[in-house]
Amino acid sequence: MAQSKITPSQMVGIFVLAVIFVPFLTILSEPGVIKKLYVIVINNIVFWIVAFLSIVFGFYRKFSNPETYTWLEFPFQILAGIATVFTIYSLFFFTTSNISDIEVWNSYVVKAEYYEKWTEEETYQDCDSEGHCTTKTTIIHHPPEWYFITDSNEKKSANRKIYNAYVNYFLNEKEKKLFHSGQISIGDGNMFYTVFNKKINERISTSIEHDYINYIKGTETLHKKTGGNVVGFESLLLPYPRTYSSVYGKINFDRVIKTKGITVSEKWIKNVDEQLDISLTTLGKEKQVNIIVYLANTKSEAFTYALEESWINGKKNDVIVLIGTANFPKIDWVSILAWTENEDFKISLRDNILDLENLNDSNKFVNTIVSQISLPDNKGGYVRMPMKNLQYLVSDITIPLWTNVLVVIFSMFLSWLVSWALINNEIKNWRKRWLNGL
């Protein structure tokens, strides 16, 4: 018996769906990314020009093929064209306009999960072009999966070793029986889990990177430091820290950065780092904040502008406590870098740290930072500036000329391909059979 085959029109449909949806899998995982890309794309005049050309081409194909191109198919032509243009532009803006950035979310692990492997038998009908069908079965093997989940609803993939580390720390592993439709394996396919049930100071703190759209980073002129502020300070400018792995997964982040020439004990650094981590298990979610302490071996407060230029004022949720200390623990000067419209916060935090006079007491230093951030918004506490407040910069975000040319060429080709598939599909035959049956 002849088996069903994919027609050329169906192949085009699969290709178009892949072009539209598959690329989004890389950027849809982060909240707010698509929404901000939408704002950027619709403010690009070339997007509307290409979308208009796709619509015009749809009308052309309809009137040049009135019998084989139906009005019912016309909306598919338009939607496929516009969706494709939007997708391609979103990817180009995300990858070539320098708007993609990484921020660190801080929280703590509340649960770890392990899903056993299991085997599924799937039954389906395989039909040929004449409607003759054969029942077939296929075996699907589902591999084991491990995850850990934070209080900020971050669910991150793990492995057996990481999961076992949480089991050994939480000491309360339980099993949950799961039902899987079509399961043929016996004694597996269940979930095991362990949850946090300890004191606050025993939390496993997490620092996890997330993609986001940075309007300031992407703009060509406004609000972007492009002067020569780094001149003379090159040796003091260090890379922005990134997260790294531990026995509990990729959740570690070094909060204390020091330049060469600063003599500070590892005990002081470790205590500040750990105390900030514990505080951020709560503040990270409540205030949407990430704290970094930057110790610079210079008496020149002009280094503030050098770091602003190098780090583009930090990430959108950063509070960077920049301290000039040519002779640690003495404090020479303090600057606060943060995306906030609450200037009282930055001024108060700076003055409170200056009042310490030195950094001998690491606990007092951490408490000064945490206390100011924790205050209510109307009393000088930290308030993160929403990215939408910088939406006026969108019109200044551009992509290379070659990308616009490529979008026009590809969208026109895809419009032709979609229209060809619609003209050569079987909708017209279904319509004729339906009319003959009336």
CATH topology of the largest domain: Diaminopimelate Epimerase, Chain A, domain 1
Number of helices: 12
- Provide the succession of SSEs: HHHHEEEEEHEEEHEEEHEHEEHHHH
Major sheet size, sense and barrel closure? 6 strands, antiparallel
Describe the fold and architecture.
The structure is a single chain. By secondary structure, this protein is an alpha+beta fold. The protein folds into three domains: 129 residues, no CATH class; 99 residues, no CATH class; 176 residues, Diaminopimelate Epimerase, Chain A, domain 1. 39% of the residues lie in helices and 21% in strands. Strands 1, 4, 5, 6, 7 and 8 form a six-stranded antiparallel beta sheet that branches. Strands 11-12-13-14 form a four-stranded mixed beta sheet, sandwiched between helices. A two-stranded antiparallel ribbon has the order 2-3. Strand 9 and strand 10 form a beta hairpin. Helix 3 packs antiparallel against helix 4. The radius of gyration is 29 Å and the shape is flat. It starts with 7 loop residues before the first helix and ends with a helix. The N terminus is likely disordered.
